[in-house]
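hey
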């Protein structure tokens, strides 16, 4: 039975709350909820953008930490590539020094040159890294582009120029794959024959065979895979590589319908773990093809009982997915027998547990599906035969199926019959939401009142208020919220109502509602939603006022929220203090309120979000034409690494969307 976690206040969620908040903080840094930035200008001052790139590079030169300095150079060079300043990108990349980072930037430059149709230029860029692994990577990318464009002759010449045998072979493998994708299996087969590295050649043969089989030419596919197997037979110098090759060939044979050949190839694998994995893959393909008996026979060929049980479980799962419950039952019997044959106790119980998990999946459709098709009595009869804990979950599922079918009264009756209080109240919560969304507020409140747990009950009332507000019945929604005695839940309901009003265009009413929220986290979150709606409606004056109020609420937050303050962050999409400030700054910059944005930024503590805030302000100033002011703001940033990013952000704001090319 699936477990459900009830929302509880503050301290009762300690571990979950703080762990989730930690994950959220990472996401918050990467994705601040702001409105889409204004469209970039159709034309731009290329010289100014290049100057910003130069200033970013100069700032990077002042970074003491060599690792961070390399990262900054890479960022500047990558931004230049994106803007089409390929010459500047080359110059910046050269400052990185030798290494993987430099090769990566050169690779991006070559990619941009190829997209612009400058294959010769891309080759020249690759040649500038002569002897490095980056040189081979770029040439490989060029060959792939040439092959994809149909120039297999040119691609072959490019591949042939690569010094390393392995890299050269892999590039020819790329060419063969491009030919396969273009439908030229004959050409791909010819290219595959020319590949010197056995592993790469086998992979190419497999791609060709799969394409041949897909086109209905199974005899050709079989012949190609026979050549692949012969190639693997000759790999006696490296037995591990040989076994790995046999694995791939065997699975490919099964994929193309040659189960006999697949099993024969699998027999040649000496390492037990490789062999077991291959048998499992073949068995899955057999049952997918409708041959469950053959799949079980394949499983029986595995001498390890644990592996045999695992394969039986795979087969049973596939049968369940196909609706073959009788067949799955037969297969699970074999799985149980195999699991019991495992000699080591720890692994025996693990195998039996895996079997039990698959069997539980087989039980669930018996309960839920009849309810989904309207046969509730049969679903309940099946549930009644279960253990009590499983019966509770099944009744909950039946109630949900009834709700989906529009039978709210029936769902309520089913929920009433659930013995387990926890499960019953979650069913009531589902029903409350469904009734409220259907407009049956009286019925929803009756159901909510039947919930004994106060936290769950007031949460249900919050769902009712949300449905009322969403339907435009704001006054009624407020009455529902006022009836909630728990302060935090009441604040949550007010926040939900305010957001619904804002999204419906009633920003005045939303502000009145938000002003009545006492929880600063929820209040700031609601005010941000209102400000976004005002910006979207073109009401910049109103947005500026709302954002000042949002900042005032944020001022009351704790720098490091405790458990009690963590809950509203998670439940309502709120944010910690610094990151709420950052969202406010983005919106203030969006409406051109630079002065207030600076005040908000100055209130921030964390340096990384503070840099992002200054960057947002600079971008807004630049879009408004105040280039000197924006540059002066960035120049005042003390950390050179942060200054680099701010210059790049400003350059990005001034660069129109365009295809790459040299300038």
């Amino acid at each position: 039975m699936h477990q459900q976690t009830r929302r509880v206040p503050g301290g009762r969620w300690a571990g979950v709350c703080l762990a989730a908040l930690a994950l959220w903080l990472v996401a918050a840094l990467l994705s601040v909820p702001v409105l889409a930035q204004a469209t970039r200008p159709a034309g731009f001052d290329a010289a100014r953008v290049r100057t910003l790139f130069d200033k970013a590079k100069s700032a990077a030169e002042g970074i003491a930490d060599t690792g961070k300095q390399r990262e900054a150079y890479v960022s500047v060079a990558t931004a230049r590539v994106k803007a089409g300043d390929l010459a500047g990108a080359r110059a910046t990349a050269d400052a990185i020094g030798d290494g993987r980072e430099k090769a990566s930037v050169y690779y991006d430059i070559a990619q941009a040159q190829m997209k612009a149709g400058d294959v010769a230029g891309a080759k020249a860029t690759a040649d500038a890294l002569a002897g490095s692994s980056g040189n081979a990577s770029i040439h490989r990318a060029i060959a792939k582009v040439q092959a994809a464009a149909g120039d297999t002759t040119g691609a072959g010449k490019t591949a042939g120029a690569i010094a390393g045998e392995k890299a050269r072979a892999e590039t020819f493998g790329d060419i063969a794959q491009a030919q396969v994708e273009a439908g030229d299996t004959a050409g791909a087969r010819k290219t595959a024959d020319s590949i010197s590295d056995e592993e790469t050649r086998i992979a190419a043969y497999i791609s060709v065979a799969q394409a041949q089989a897909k086109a209905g030419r199974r005899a050709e596919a079989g012949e190609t895979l026979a050549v692949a197997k012969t190639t693997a037979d000759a790999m006696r110098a490296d037995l591990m590589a040989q076994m790995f090759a046999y694995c791939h060939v065997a699975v490919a044979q099964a994929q193309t319908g040659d189960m006999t050949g697949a099993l024969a190839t699998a027999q040649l694998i000496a390492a037990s773990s490789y062999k077991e994995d291959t048998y499992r893959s073949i068995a899955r393909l057999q049952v997918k093809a409708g041959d469950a008996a053959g799949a079980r026979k394949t499983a029986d060929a595995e001498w390890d009982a644990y592996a045999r049980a695992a394969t039986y479980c795979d087969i049973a799962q596939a049968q369940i997915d196909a609706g073959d419950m009788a067949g799955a039952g037969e297969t699970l019997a074999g799985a149980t027998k195999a699991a019991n044959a495992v000699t080591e106790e720890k692994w025996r119980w693990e195998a039996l547990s895996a079997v039990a998990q698959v069997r539980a999946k087989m039980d669930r459709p018996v309960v839920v599906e009849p309810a989904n098709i309207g046969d509730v009595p049969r679903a309940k009869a099946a549930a009644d035969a279960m253990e009590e804990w499983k019966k509770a979950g099944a009744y909950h599922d039946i109630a949900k199926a009834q709700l989906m079918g529009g039978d709210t009264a029936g769902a309520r009756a089913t929920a009433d019959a659930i013995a387990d209080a926890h499960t019953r109240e979650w069913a009531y919560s589902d029903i409350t939401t469904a009734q409220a969304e259907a407009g049956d507020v009286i019925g929803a409140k009756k159901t909510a009142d039947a919930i004994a747990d106060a936290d769950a009950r007031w949460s249900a009332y919050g769902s009712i208020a949300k449905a009322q507000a969403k339907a435009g019945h704001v006054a009624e929604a407020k009455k529902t919220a006022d009836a909630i005695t728990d302060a935090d839940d009441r604040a949550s309901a007010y926040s939900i109502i305010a957001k619904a009003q804002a999204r419906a265009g009633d920003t005045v009413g939303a502000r009145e509602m938000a002003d009545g929220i006492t929880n600063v986290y929820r209040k700031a979150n609601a005010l941000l939603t209102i400000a976004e709606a005002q910006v979207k409606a073109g009401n910049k004056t109103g947005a500026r006022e709302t954002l000042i109020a949002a900042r005032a609420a944020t001022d009351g937050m704790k720098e490091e929220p405790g458990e009690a303050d963590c809950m509203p962050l998670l439940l309502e999409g709120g944010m910690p203090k610094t990151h709420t400030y950052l969202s406010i700054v983005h919106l203030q910059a969006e409406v051109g309120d630079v002065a207030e944005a600076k005040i908000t930024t100055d209130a921030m503590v964390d340096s990384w979000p503070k840099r992002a805030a200054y960057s947002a302000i600079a971008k807004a100033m630049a879009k408004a034409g105040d280039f000197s002011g924006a540059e002066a703001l960035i120049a005042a940033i003390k950390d050179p690494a942060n200054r680099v990013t701010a210059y790049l952000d400003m350059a990005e704001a001034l660069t129109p969307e365009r295809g790459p090319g040299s300038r």
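Confidence is low (pLDDT under 50) at residues 1-43, 364-369, 658-663. The two ends are 62 Å apart (CA to CA).
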